[in-house]
Amino acid sequence: MAKFTALAAILVALLFIAHTTAYRTIVTTTDKQSRSCREQLQQQQYLNECERFLRQQCQSQSGRRDSTSEQQQLEQCCDQLRDMSRRCRCDGLSELVSEQLGHLQGEERREILQIARNLPNECNLRPGRCDSEIRSN
């Protein structure tokens, strides 16, 4: 009987350890997947590299072009977008456009909106375009 009790105690301890490990794995995985878009946007410094790229595009349309600098800026923007979850990329770009570039008017605004909508595609990311998230109003 004493051997049975000891064996049962060991079995219960092993089950407890296995359950705790499984729980910790599930919680860690879920935490990474469920980081809010706001947290991801903060971690990616509110897509400041994408903002720089878009501002540079405004200047390029005004006649000032530097393709090497533009390409570097685009790559840095893509890095930030790549580090965000797929579901948050367009929301982040939408917030960037409305809060940081909302002052633009007319043709300049339309051009920047088109560039911003297409940024995930330029970065070979999914979704390829952010048409429904980035609106012109």
UniProtKB/TrEMBL annotation:
Q: Which family does it belong to?
A: Belongs to the 2S seed storage albumins family.
Q: Which Pfam families match?
A: Tryp_alpha_amyl
Q: Which GO terms describe its molecular function?
A: nutrient reservoir activity
Signal peptide bounds: 1-22
Q: Which key words are in the record?
A: Seed storage protein, Signal, Storage protein
Gene source species: Fagus sylvatica (Beechnut)
**Name of the molecule in the record:** Bifunctional inhibitor/plant lipid transfer protein/seed storage helical domain-containing protein
Tell me the organism's taxonomic lineage: Eukaryota, Viridiplantae, Streptophyta, Embryophyta, Tracheophyta
Q: Which residues are in the Bifunctional inhibitor/plant lipid transfer protein/seed storage helical domain?
A: 37-130
Presence of keyword Signal:
yes
What InterPro entries does the record tag this protein with? Answer: Bifun_inhib/LTP/seed_sf, Bifunc_inhib/LTP/seed_store, Napin/2SS/CON
Q: Does the keyword Signal apply?
A: yes
